[in-house]
Amino acid sequence: MSEMISAEELKALIDQTYKVEEEYVALRQSYAHLQSTIEQVIEFLPNAIWIVEPDGSIFLQNSQAKGLDKLFETLRWDEQDYEVAFEERSFLIKSALHNEKHLLSATDITDQKRKENLATMGQMAAHLSHEIRNPIGSIALLASTLMKRVKEENKPIVTEIQKSLYRIERIIKATLMFSKGVSAQKGSLRWWQIREALESAIGYYSYGKKIDFCFPDDDFDLVGDLDLLVMLFSNFIFNAVDAIELDENEDGVIELTYRCDERYHIFEIYDSGIAIENKKWLFEAFKSTKERGNGLGLVLAKNIAQAHGGEITVCEGERKGFCITLAR
After folding, report:
1. Phi, psi dihedral angles at 282 (to 5 degrees)
2. Which of 78, 109, 179, 292 has the fewest CB atoms in 10 Å of its CB?
């Protein structure tokens, strides 16, 4: 016959059971706290994180990962580090195996790749621009000499050559400026100086339609770099000319308006040309929706405006236009 358990032993056994239960509850609470901490940690990470069970089910993921479920389906778990293109973006994928669980991360490197590509393209373009500049200078000199000696009926041909050279020189200047960066040498100037330079530049630009150019008549003071500001406004004007050339109407209008407040000079430029095709490319280097363009005009215009304490935005409303602000 088995030995009977005494009351004292029974009480000790019950106490031991309660103690084990308390330790178990504390352990569960500690585990829950640890899991919550891990979840918070991975939630703060800027990249997408997945922790995957051996059967392929997701044990844990952060909100960045939840928005990339389609990307997750394409990941290769047997590769530790590789890049993948997904929905017009680039991701760096890293993977590891720990305690039979797969750890996967996806970091968006689109902007980094874009900057690297732009830097490479800028260096190549700058090199080509330097190589082209010398022969273009020689051709320009020869064209100027030819204009003085050619017959009157042939002068329009030479004029077109000079206008084409002007366009190439603008592209070279814009490319070199993009590769070196915009540096404004500011000084006091008047609006009439910019307007006069713009009217001269328009005379060198080729277009076939009748276009009315409406510029501010009032004169006013500005502080800025004359050459850069002329480039800023001429880029918008030439873009507008090209848009009007592509329009089905036989004539067009380009209107530049001006007002100011306590902090800014505010210009708005409108044109009657075709609508903007892809607004997301407007300020993206080397991307252009035009046949006549290298994709640097608006990028440089924006950089010039920012170098003058201002900004460029697309005008809201029915009319197609841009708003240009410059610090007073």
Report:
1. -55, -45
2. 78
Instruction: Please say whether the dihedral angle defined by the alpha carbons of residues 80, 85, 90 and 91, taken in this order, is positive or negative.
Output: negative
Cα–Cα dist 68/50, whole Å: 10
**Measured between alpha carbons, how far is residue 149 from residues 70, 142, 153, 160, 161 in Å?**
69, 11, 12, 16, 15
Tell me the CA distances in angstroms from 62 to 37, 44, 55, one per residue in order. Answer: 12, 9, 19
Read off the pLDDT of residues 79-89 as tens digits, 9 standing for 90 and up: 888 888 888 78
Across 225-231, average pLDDT: 91
CATH number of this structure's domain 110-181: 1.10.287
Residues 6+ apart with CB under 8 A from 106: 47, 48, 64, 65, 68, 71, 72, 75, 91, 92, 93
Q: Which two tokens stand for residue 78?
A: 């047997």
Tokens 């201002």 correspond to 310
Architecture of the CATH domain 7-109: 2-Layer Sandwich (3.30)
Please tell me what DSSP assigns to residue 55.
T
